[in-house]
Amino acid sequence: MTILITGGAGYIGSHCCVTFLDAGYDVVVLDNLSNSNTASLTRAEEISGRKLVFEQGDVRDQATVETLLKRHECTAVIHFAGLKAVGESTRYPLAYYDNNVIGTHRLLSAMANAGVRDLIFSSSATVYGEPQQLPLTEEHSLNPVNPYGRTKLIVEDMLRDLAASDPGWRIGILRYFNPVGAHASGLIGEDPLGVPNNLMPFITQVASGRREKLNVFGNDYETRDGTGVRDYIHVVDLVEGHLRAYHALSNLDGRDNCFAVNLGTGDGYSVLEMVKAFERASNRIISYDFVPRRAGDVAECFADTKKAQELLSWSAERELHNMCEDTWNWVCKNPKGYSD
Ligand code: NAD
Ligand code: UFG
After folding, report:
1. pLDDT surpasses 70 at 340
2. Which residue of 47, 172, 231, 295 could cross-link 245, Cys pair, CB 3.0 to 4.6 Å?
3. What is the CATH number of the domain that holds 108?
4. 188 occurs within a structural domain
5. Candidates 178, 274, 324: which one to mutate for ligand 2, based on the most atoms within 8 Å of Cβ?
6. Are 137 and 187 in contact (CB under 8 A)?
7. Within a domain: residue 21?
8. Atom in ligand 1 nearest the alpha carbon of residue 31
9. How large is the angle between the packed helices 271-282 and 320-333, nearest 10 degrees?
10. Which domain covers residue 146, as residue numbers?
11. Is the pLDDT of residue 19 over 90?
């Protein structure tokens, strides 16, 4: 069975390639390399000891996607390709609607024409917006507060409409919490361009001496130490959740052929707890300053994990120390990311 992985050269996609190759599937990656490097794919092959097929191209190019789905006789698609930075989405909303919404529409049209109707989609906990109650269950209201989140919700709605229109589609929507960490080999990991937006890559760059100190956005939240609390999940657990979700597609029937599931650990850690955990893992001091809150941030966000356990028979296994140790291993082995 051949799976098309869009965005497969990226951070989460490259880990997903390893998981699916290890599970015996053939993998075709479609990526335009706008935020990645083919080195991640060579390394994924090295880890799994198997080859994959790489096609450089854009999900918005419907004809190309249709041709490669047919040529490689793909049976399912895992769709990671898209843009993902919240702040950037407020400055360039059209780029986000173009890549994420129009890109997914073209992909789905190509899949329909090629007769491929099994799909796993990368959504985000950001679709919930400001939490009304915690932990966040999948039934929580969907009210994203930035353009990025709105593109994810529009795609989710499009997928629900598509599934309702035709029982032949089988669709799994996965709402990620905060993916961090790297493959235990240290061969693949997160390699952000420019100044990192997210906490973990910023902490690693302070630990490795590339940046002087971390700005902690707010220490006056109603949390145990005043700093923001998030549900960090090891990227390898996350992609194993994709394998379980893919298997769960075959249990869907025509009346209920689309599900949305949280992928998180259910545990929340504060910014300062993350700093301390990373100091232990790296044996380095992480200097930080408290600065005002970042616009759009919520105090706390963590997942209810029951539905994932029931529907996918999946729960995250790796703990915070594994997330930090594996990240540090990746950074030490690749101080300049894939450009080493
Ligand atoms: P990433 O940027 O590392 O990977 C995305 C990949 O898609 C990159 O390789 C990029 O080159 C490619 N791409 C972008 N637009 C494309 C297009 N139009 N056609 C073909 N390829 C294209 O990001 P990631 O962290 O691996 O995220 C993967 C997915 O997971 C995204 O859809 C993102 O929104 C979602 N997600 C990520 C997080 C997170 O914190 N990393 C959280 C929630 C959801
Ligand atoms: N933070 C800092 N300093 C930094 C970066 C982050 O203090 O330099 C804090 C934030 O204020 C927040 C926490 O660290 O309290 C986590 O922030 P991230 O930017 O790492 O993650 P977010 O929870 O804001 O968002 C991430 C992804 C989104 C995704 C969301 C899902 O960036 O794409 O997780 O929960 F939608």
Report:
1. no
2. 172
3. 3.40.50.720
4. no
5. 178
6. no
7. yes
8. 21
9. 60
10. 2-182+231-265+303-317
11. yes
